[in-house]
Structure formats: structure tokens, C-alpha cells
């Protein structure tokens, strides 16, 4: 047997019985093609993909599962698509299978257009949830994973991001609660149907193979970050962890912080491989290496991803800015004269930001840093708003939800009917509570509406792409 010491743990590299052993890597949320406050992440992503190929070779990985959001947008730049295809091509050197699952950021049509070609390169692309009553569709979503000796070692229920129209039809007259409950039941049913099929595949193999399931969604109780776009599958905000099937391992994507779900060991988010927002800067990014031995889940090992571009979010005053940066730079920018630290600076005791930009630029010009964002701390913004009776915050200081909340605060919350009702009840339902309830309802509706608009916009872009492609094909036919 050959072993390797990694991060203080002893892990088995070449098990004595490799015919009953499988090792996979679970990763997600690459967001290839992302622009970060105008900065391309191409260099970081390429370094990550090179690092990942090294892990495949070093640890003798049999399969990689990418649980959604391969690209940052539905129309990624050409260099991001080239990066994606180059990685798949280079992976073949190591006899490693690849399972690509679409996320909420990915274009179904763009991923699907190459899946037939990529299947010849040991790559399964699952771009959307299709009608599983059709045998071929079911076979595309439930299949075996093999080890390097070509022996089936696991069965996977490959489930991408689920859109409401994939699993349910809307019914007139349903309340929001009924719609949410129906949708959760439909998603639960989809998982269970695929899991039942996976158990049939195990029986057909005459070996008690482990079952892996996937997903790209928000599970209840997880910790998110600023870069995670809220997913509302219809009216469903989060999926309960106890509704997942009894698979041996469940590989999830969408949440950028690596974590366990529902205090379980086998339901995991791998997180994003690079920090996608400043509040992720202090996270230790990783991919998860999953070992199955003797047809059972054996160990889960964190493979820590190096930081290819340091980020930092600092809270300070203008007077203390230089001192703060002097302490920060030596820890984050090491032995690389070409690398610059990207900064998000949150300032206290300040007024208008427009007056500060030249001053901050002059203060940091001798440091290996690049200031991508300058903003005031929330308390300062609120104080200025109260003092001046108007919001002087700039848009880059505010989230979409904060802009909406600011607008709500300018409204008169209760109608006359509500006020009468309060008087009749002798303050049984205080005015403040009524206002808070209505505000919370509107904010939730706003989030759901924005999420649906983003989804509809992505679908419209895909439809335009398809129509343009069809028109080009028709023109070519006519010319020939």
C-alpha cells in the first residue's frame, strides 16, 4: 500500500484492492468568465484548473463532479469557454471521468450543445432536468461511475439546478404557501424517482455499489456570502436536508462556503475554488476528495486550494489607512513582486466619497495594492441620511436589497383600514408589528421577483441565441 501525508492526515493513494476502491473530487461554482469590479479572473481560474489537474494526477482521481455554475453568466466570454474545453481535453490524459452539472448561472443551451461531443471524452454533461418518464432521459441522469480499471464503483443521480417548469405545472388559484409546498414535493419526488432508479441499477450490477446524488440549490440552515445570488425555485427559498434521498454521498453546489448540511457528514457543499466576493476573502477554499472503499463511503478529505489572487476587506479611518495596509500587505502578498492586493476599503468618520478618491489614491500609491471599492460603513451612511434627510449613499455602497429597503422606508406603511383595525383591537396588533410584517412580505416578494426576472432574462437570451443560430442555418441552406 502507498500512503501520502496531507494536511496532517494519512490518506491512502494506491489501495491494496483497487478493484473495490474509487476516489472522486467534488467541486462547484467555478464561475469561469467572472469580472470582479472590472477585473478579469482569467488568470486565477487558469491557475486553479492547472492545480486541479495536478490533484487528479497526484491522488489518482477516478472522477470529478462539478456541481453547477461552471460559468458566471449564460453568455460567457470566449476565453472562458476555451478554458473549459481545454480542461476537459487535458483531463483525458489521466483517465478521469467528468460530470458537469448546470447551475443557475449556466446556459442550458450552451452546455447542451456540446454534450454529445464531450461524451466521447468521458464527460457527462447534464444541462437541465428532463422528462424522466422517457427512458433515454432517465439514463442520462442515472448512470454508473467507473474506476480506472473500468469497473463500476458507484451509481450517480446527476441532478443539476432545477427550474420549476422542469418538475411541476402551475395551477390556478394556488396560494404562495400552496405553490411552495407543491414545488418542494415535486423536487422531493424527482430526487426519489432517480434514487429508486439508482437502486435498480445497483441490483442489475449484482454489486452493492454506493449511490451518489447531486444538486444545485440552497439547503436549509447553510451560511451564504455576498456573491451568492438568492435562488428561488418558484416560491421555494430553501430545500430541507431531510428531504434528500438516503444516498451515500450528496454533492451540492451554489453556496460558496464549504460546509456540511444539517449536521451530516455525507451532505456537503464544496464551496467555490476562489473568493468571488470580498466577504469570502478569509475563507479557506477547497475541493473535497471522497473515497469509497469496499463499496462504502470511507473518507472525505479537504484539498486546500492555494490563493491565486489575494483579496482583503478592511475597515478603518482615513487617518489609519496607511498603518492598516502596512500590516496587511506582508501577510497577503508574499514573494511575488508582480502581485497586487485587491482592496475593499470601508471608511468611518467620512462624508462624501467623491472628495476622498484622490486622497486615497495618493495614500496607497507606494503599496502593492489596488483599490477596487471604497465605501462608508453602514452606521455612517445611516447617520448622514438622518442628518441630511436624504440618502447620500452611492450605488456601489448598496446591495439591491438595500436600495429597495431604502425606498420602502419612504412609504407610509398602513392604510386607514389597518389603523381602524388596530383601534378596534385595542392595540392587540401594534402598529409597528403590522408595519414590520408588511415590510418583510414586500422584501421577500421583491427577492423572488428579482430572481425570477434574472431567470427569465437568461431564458430570453438563450431563445435569442437559438433563433439566431436557426436563422444562420437557414441562410446557409439557401446559399447552398
Keywords:
single chain, alpha/beta, six-stranded mixed sheet, globular, 480 residues, 21% strand, Purple Acid Phosphatase, chain A, domain 2
Describe this structure in words.
This protein folds into 3 domains: 2-304, 4-Layer Sandwich (Purple Acid Phosphatase, chain A, domain 2); 311-398, 2-Layer Sandwich (Double Stranded RNA Binding Domain); 419-479. It has a 6-stranded mixed β-sheet with strand order 8-7-6-3-15-16. The protein has a 6-stranded mixed β-sheet with strand order 9-10-11-12-14-13. A 3-stranded parallel β-sheet has the order 17-18-19. It has helices spanning 42-58, 78-91, 108-112, 115-118, 135-141, 164-167, 176-205, 321-332, 357-364, 378-388, 400-408, 416-424, 431-479, and strands spanning 2-6, 9-14, 21-27, 35-36, 39-40, 63-67, 97-101, 123-126, 142-146, 152-157, 211-216, 249-253, 259-260, 267-269, 286-293, 296-304, 311-316, 341-347, 369-376. Strand 15 (286-293) and strand 16 form a beta hairpin. It is α/β, with parallel strands linked by helices and 480 residues long. Helix 1 (42-58) packs parallel to helix 2 (78-91) and helix 11 (400-408) packs across helix 13. It has 13 helices and 19 strands.
Can you tell me the residue ranges where pLDDT is under 50 for at least 5 consecutive residues?
A: 1-16, 231-235, 414-429
Euclidean distance between termini CA atoms = 63 Å
Number of domains: 3
* CATH-defined architecture of the largest domain: 4-Layer Sandwich
The CATH homologous superfamily name of the largest domain equals Metallo-dependent phosphatases
- CATH class term of the largest domain: Alpha Beta
Main sheet properties = 6 strands, mixed
Tell me how many strands there are: 19
What is the molecular shape?
globular
Oligomer: single chain
CATH topology of the largest domain: Purple Acid Phosphatase, chain A, domain 2
Helix content: 25-40%
Q: Name the average pLDDT.
A: 80
Determine the number of helices (DSSP H or I, runs of at least 4 residues): 13
Strand content: 15-25%
What's the Cα radius of gyration? Answer: 25 Å
Spatial order of strands in the largest sheet: 8-7-6-3-15-16
Structural class: alpha/beta
